[in-house]
Design goal:
The protein is an alpha/beta fold. It has helices at about 1-5, 25-35, 50-60, 75-80, 95, 100-115, 120-125, 140-150, 160-165, 215-230, 245-255; strands at about 45-50, 65-70, 125-135, 150-155, 170-180, 185-195, 200-205, 235-240, 260, 265-270, 280-285. The protein has two domains: about 1-85, HAD superfamily/HAD-like (Rossmann fold, 3-Layer(aba) Sandwich), CATH 3.40.50.1000; about 100-285, Gcn5-related N-acetyltransferase (GNAT) (Aminopeptidase, 3-Layer(aba) Sandwich). About 25% of the residues are buried.
Length: about 290
């Protein structure tokens, strides 16, 4: 009843995206929450005033940032205010509703358990993908995704907002926003495209992990092939930088018909475009 009835409680139940209250090891709970929320362990910050608990987490989940808290609760706020991991130059629209996004994702998982198969689940989601050229208002989020996306990220190139603004002068930046029956995912996909010697160079191709596995990446790639067709280009070149967690984007492109010509370069003929996913409603506004 603390959330509802304590006069000085600022947080509410709706601010909590996931929780574990039990006697398990803290590291085990963190792994469960990472899986439940579809986050990497390196996205978690663990705070505890017990050195025993901190050591257990540091030993078993070294990716987690562990913060020693003072014994006197009066100093908690001061300690938290000095943590570098909570610093941000700016907040995007997605940042302001992050807990809401995670709650929606839990609703999707619960719904999936009630559906007989994956095909029916995807159809029932009523996915709507809007794909368009990036506008000035999108660029902070574009820069943020290049900095934070580790799994489905072709190049792993990290870029600041000024760098993205400069790139926009010579390249086409496509963005993908997604909605379904449970809510708005926000801006979850980025493609930076540049014609080069009769080919389309896929400088950046990334998707937030929240949107993966629902056919949306296929819809985004289909649009890029269509973009190349409109430009009368014959091939798509996708330079790949291998990292500890992004092998899945390479596997995806190979499954979509790309060939590995070199260890760090994938290629595809524009004529061999992937199929447009039928369960995703696509709203495309990419003027060439």
């Amino acid at each position: 009843n603390v959330f509802e009835h304590h006069a000085e409680m600022i947080l509410r139940r709706g601010d909590i995206a996931g929780h574990r209250i039990n006697w398990q090891k803290k590291s085990a709970n963190l792994r469960e929450l990472a899986k439940e929320l579809n986050l990497g362990l390196d996205s978690f910050v663990f705070m505890d005033d017990s050195p025993v608990e901190r050591l257990e987490v540091e030993t078993n989940t070294p990716e987690v940032t562990v913060v020693p808290m003072p014994k006197d609760p009066a100093y908690y706020a001061e300690t938290l205010s000095k943590l570098w991991c909570f610093d941000a130059r700016s907040l995007t629209a997605e940042d302001t509703i992050r807990t809401q996004l995670m709650v929606q994702e839990q609703q999707r998982r619960d719904f999936q358990q009630s559906v007989s198969n994956l095909e029916n689940y995807l159809e029932s989601l009523e996915l709507v993908a809007e794909i368009r050229l990036a506008e000035e208002r999108d660029l902070p989020r574009v820069a943020q995704l290049t900095q934070k996306t580790n799994q489905f990220n072709l190049s792993l190139i990290r870029r600041s907002l000024p760098e993205i603004q400069e790139i926009q002068k010579s390249s086409s930046i496509l963005v993908l926003s997604l909605k379904d029956r449970f809510g708005d995912y926000g801006l979850v996909g980025v493609g930076i495209l540049k014609p080069e010697n009769g080919s389309l160079l896929l400088d950046t191709f990334l998707m937030s992990c929240r949107a993966l596995g629902r056919g949306v990446e296929e819809a985004f790639l289909y649009t890029m092939f269509d973009f190349a067709t409109q430009k009368d280009l014959k091939r798509i070149l996708a330079p790949f930088h291998s990292g500890p967690r992004n092998e899945q984007v390479k596997t995806f492109l190979l499954n979509m018909g790309f060939e590995q010509k070199q260890s760090d370069l994938l290629e595809a003929e524009v004529a061999n475009s992937p199929k447009k996913p039928g369960h995703v409603k696509m709203l495309v506004n990419v003027l060439v």
